[in-house]
Amino acid sequence: MTPSRTQQIPVVVLAGFLGSGKTTLLNHLLRNRAGTRIGVVVNDFGAIEIDAMTVSGQVGSTVSLGNGCLCCAVDASELDTFLETLTRPSARLDVIVIEASGLAEPQELVRMLLASDNPHILYGGLVEVVDAAEFEATRQRHPELDRHLAVADLVVLNKTDRVGEEERDRLRATVAELSGPAAVIPAVHGRIDPELLFDPALRPDDGEMAGQLSFEDLLRGDDHDAHEGCDDHEGCDGHGGPGGGRGSHLHAAYESVEFTSDVPLDPRRFMAFLDSRPEGLYRIKGFVDFGAGDRDNTYALHAVGRFLRFVPRPWARGERRLTQLVMIGAGTDAEALSRGLAACRAEEPAPGDPAEDPAVIERAMWGVLRYVPQNEDADEAPEVPGEQREATAEV
Length: 395
Fold this sequence. Notes:
By secondary structure, the chain is an alpha/beta fold. About 30% of the residues lie in helices and about 20% in strands. The strands form 2 sheets. It has an 8-stranded mixed beta sheet with strand order 7-6-5-1-4-2-3-8, with helices on both faces. Strands 9-13-10-11-12 form a 5-stranded antiparallel beta sheet, covered by helices on one side.
C-alpha cells in the first residue's frame, strides 16, 4: 500500500487496575517488537515509581510523569510537552504507549489525547487489562471498573491460566457484555500479538535503527534541556527474556481479514458498513477508492474501536486504483465481513441515472468527509478535529 504523506505516530493508552498486568504486557510488547521503535510514558501513583523501574530494563528511556494520576495531575498542554519530545523526527519512533496509573480514569486520558495540539500523533486506542483471577474482587473494590470496560477499545482478559475453562468462558462473556463492541482477548502473562496494537516497522532490523529509544536519541540534534523525570537507562535489544518470541499461538485469539477491490466503493454503503461494524472488530486500516465520489484522491482509513478517521491523498501518477483494507478483531465472522464489504462496491450507473448528478455524488461523500481532518496539512493543523472528537465523545 502507498503510505500517507505525513507520518503520524499512534499513541496507545494502556490502562487497568493495580495488579492487572499492565507492566507485564508492556514488557512483552518491548521484547517482541520486531524492530519497531516504541516510546514509553509511564505514569505511576506514588513517590517510588516501581513500574518505571521495571520497564526501564526493557526500554532505553522512560518518560515518567511522576507523582499522581496523569488524568488529574497533568493537563493536555503538559501532556503535549512530553509527546512533543517523543514525536521529534530524531527519535524515529513508530508507536508511543502510555502506561497509565492503576488509579487513572481512562476516559479522561483519551479526552486529553483527542484534545492534543500535536499534529504528529494519532489515537491508537484504549486497552484495558483485566485480571481474570481477581475480576470479581476488583469489581467489588472498584465498581468503576464497569465504566472503564464500557469505554475500552480492546480488553485483555489477563491471567486466564489461573482460572478453569468454565470460569474463563463465564468471565469472558461477562466482560464482553460490559465492554459492548470492544474486542476481548484472553491472555497469559500479558502475551498478546503486538500487531493487535500497532503495525510492525518496515525498516530493516539492523544496527542503530533497530535499537530501542535511548535518552541520547531524544537529545541528538536538539538544543534543549532534558525534561525532569526522564531517566537515562542503558538500552536493550528488545528481545529474549521470559515470554519472548512471537509464536503462532498469539494469533489464535484474533482474526485478520483482508479485502481488496478494483471496483470503487459506494461512500453511503461503506459508511453504513462502518456504522454497523460488528462487536469485536478492533482495528480497520487501509486505503479506499470512492471512485466518482472523489476521482482525485484515495482515502487512508484509520479506525480503532469507536475512533474513525479518513485522510485523502492524491493518487500517484500511474498508481493502480484499488481499495485495500485489513480488519483485525476477536470473535468476528470473517466471511460476513468480506460479504459486507463486497456489498459496498459501487454499481455502474445507467446513462441518465440521477446518481450521476454531481450534487448527488457530493452529498454521498458527506458521511466520509465528517471524519476528514478540517485541515489536511498535518504540519499546520491537529490530526483530531472537532468532528472526530464528536465521533468519539462517548469514549
